[in-house]
Amino acid sequence: xxxxxxxxxxxxxxxxxxxxxxxxxxxxxxxxxxxxxxxxxxxxxxxxxxxxxxxxxxxxxxxxxxxxxxxxxxxxxxxxxxxxxxxxxxxxxxxxxxxxxxxxxxxxxxxxxxxxxxxxxxxxxxxxxxxxxxxxxxxxxxxxxxxxxxxxxxxxxxxxxxxxxxxxxxxxxxxxxxxxxxxxxxxxxxxxxxxxxxxxxxxxxxxxxxxxxxxxxxxxxxxxxxxxxxxxxxxxxxxxxxxxxxxxxxxxxxxxxxxxxxxxxxxxxxxxxxxxxxxxxxxxxxxxxxxxxxxxxxxxxxxxxxxxxxxxxxxxxxxxxxxxxxxxxxxxxxxxxxxxxxxxxxxxxxxxxxxxxxxxxxxxxxxxxxxxxxxxxxxxxxxxxxxxxxxxxxxxxxxxxxxxxxxxxxxxxxxxxxxxxxxxxxxxxxxxxxxxxxxxxxxxxxxxxxxxxxxxxxxxxxxxxxxxxxx
Amino acid sequence: xxxxxxxxxxxxxxxxxxxxxxxxxxxxxxxxxxxxxxxxxxxxxxxxxxxxxxxxxxxxxxxxxxxxxxxxxxxxxxxxxxxxxxxxxxxxxxxxxxxx
Lengths: 471, 100
Known about the structure:
The structure holds two protein chains of two kinds. Chain A is of the alpha/beta class. Chain A folds into three domains: about 5-245, Amidase signature (AS) enzymes (Alpha-Beta Complex), CATH 3.90.1300; about 255-300 and about 375-470, Amidase signature (AS) enzymes (Alpha-Beta Complex), CATH 3.90.1300; about 300-365, no CATH class. Helices cover about 40% and strands about 15% of the residues of chain A. In chain A, helix 5 packs parallel to helix 6, helix 9 (about 300-315) packs across helix 11 and helix 9 (about 300-315) packs across helix 12. In chain B, strand 1 (about 85) and strand 2 (about 90) form a beta hairpin. Chain B has a two-stranded antiparallel ribbon. By secondary structure, chain B is mostly helical. The two termini of chain B are about 30 Å apart. Chain B is flat. The longest helix of chain B has 17 residues, at about 25-40. Chain B has a domain at about 1-45: Histone, subunit A (Orthogonal Bundle), CATH 1.10.20. Classes of the chains: A alpha/beta, B mainly alpha. Chains A and B meet through helix 9, helix 10, helix 11 and helix 12 of A and helix 1 and helix 2 of B.
């Protein structure tokens, strides 16, 4: 399958047409989408129109953008004007946003071709896409297994060759974990580097948009396009996008890579073996492996599963059957709210709204939410100490390879444990990415996670590129 | 940390969250939340008395802009997506006159 950078080069110099590229991807969608269910919506007509326009521009000698002709899939929690955006929830089914998310505007300006909106766990709450109101996405590498989540559709779309790249959102690992399980690259950038205007909010102090691609160079290329300050997002960092493609060939000589000596337990041995192989590869390439301690890491799950639901319970209060989405009629306003939300939200979303409302309610705030915020500080301080000694840290992305459908759905806590290695990054606001690095005992891909400090994307990409060369 | 969560508390919280849970759902939710909250007791072992809470990753301050007119969303396009609208406004069921 063609890389994003090859498509851009070919379309720009006229050796490829955007139309041919798009047709090739639509062909693969037609062949396998009924089995995979990566998409909530395939926008084939719009994709063909966009491709034809780009081809006309190339023919007319006009300058085309940095993503000219690249078929891209968008997680269905990013607003697309006039195109249904559901968050895989019944409550938003049929809703056509009146505006484009900033990332969508940037993609269109760069000449990308949106091929569809991808499936997710409802409102991005989950680690397997089994919480989608419209049915799960299958892992393209083994359809008896989950693709991970919550951005499972976006990961599967790239893995199956339905799109050259996709965007997802990551609140506690929702880009990195599905990337690992589907054998693709997934990046969660520093909080504030990619605008969230038009991303449906889950937990606002944690959410971040990022790319899925089939290799590290494509990820760097796409991330450069979508990054940068946006006045429409008040949490957006006021600085320009960092140059990433330029550092990919720098190697890791002299870099200090952290090995966490007190990593939480529960990781499968075959995954840990790949982590050791990754350290070996980096050592051979001239990096130094340094032991670091992150004692608060073991408390991350608790902090996250109090903070994220608390923020979600507030963010999801807007789904009240008044301004958008669906309504269940009732005699008075309060009864309408309750009937609408009861019918519109799935079980996991209700569970998290309940947990969050409880953690924020009078009498329990200090014991739960207040404490969780203090633990968040401890984690951030742990990282700050570690990054005095190292440039990046390596962990597994997920404690296991892709698991079977239904194996964790009866036990919410077992599902939450999938996020144990990815959550700390979101709490600290740091960047992290997952890179495929071999396979586990079941021949399914293993992802290695590269973590860095705030705005440490260059160091992170250097290490990721080295791991890719060694894999 | 507080006592184990009761079904009465769960029902009260569901009202605060504007969710109407059936008795069966409330029962199931109580046991699931109790299981999670039990797991979350691990942070009780930490001494957090001198720790400053961290609400977000950055020390963000109010973000201001010049007070100039900018284009906003098209009103009709927004109302077209509402469950019920009338005369340029969202339409809702009666808000008073019922026992809430």
